[in-house]
Write a structure and sequence with these properties.
The radius of gyration is 13 Å and the shape is globular. By secondary structure, it is mainly beta. Strands 2, 4, 5, 6, 9, 10 and 11 form a 7-stranded mixed sheet that branches. A 4-stranded antiparallel sheet has the order 1-3-8-7, with no helix packed on it. The mean pLDDT is 94. Helices cover 0% and strands 48% of the residues.
């Protein structure tokens, strides 16, 4: 599976961005899709994950709950991350990932995109 993330950029605190991640492989719907982020000098952090069964169940990291929303379009083979009320501490490289396990740990994902940089200015 090849994943192509896009949508990062520079935004002021309180602003919004939407990240996209397009997957090359079908059936896209069989994969658990996740977003992680990594700030300079820090470990990779779980952001959100979504499955396509059970009504598209989602899980979020504590630091983004209530501000970020993950969604997926199984026709377009794309997963999205809508980020609202952005804070300077959200600054990081954001990675999308695909796997077969419903997990919040990076090791549980088999495929990774190249990352897209999000910078939030104060």
């Amino acid at each position: 599976v090849q994943l192509q993330a896009s949508g990062g950029g520079l935004v002021q605190a309180g602003g919004s961005l939407r990240l996209s991640c397009a997957a090359s492989k079908r059936p896209f719907s069989s994969y658990v899709m996740g977003w992680f982020r990594q700030a300079p000098g820090k470990e990779r952090e779980f952001v959100a994950t979504i499955i396509s069964w059970s009504g598209g169940t989602t899980y979020y990291g504590d630091s983004v709950k209530g501000r970020f929303t993950i969604s997926r379009d199984n026709v377009k083979n794309t997963v999205y991350l809508q980020m609202n009320s952005l804070k300077p501490e959200d600054t990081a490289v954001y990675y999308c990932a695909a796997g077969r396990l419903l997990t919040t740990t990076a090791q549980g994902y088999d495929y990774w995109g190249q990352g897209t940089l999000v910078t939030v200015s104060s």
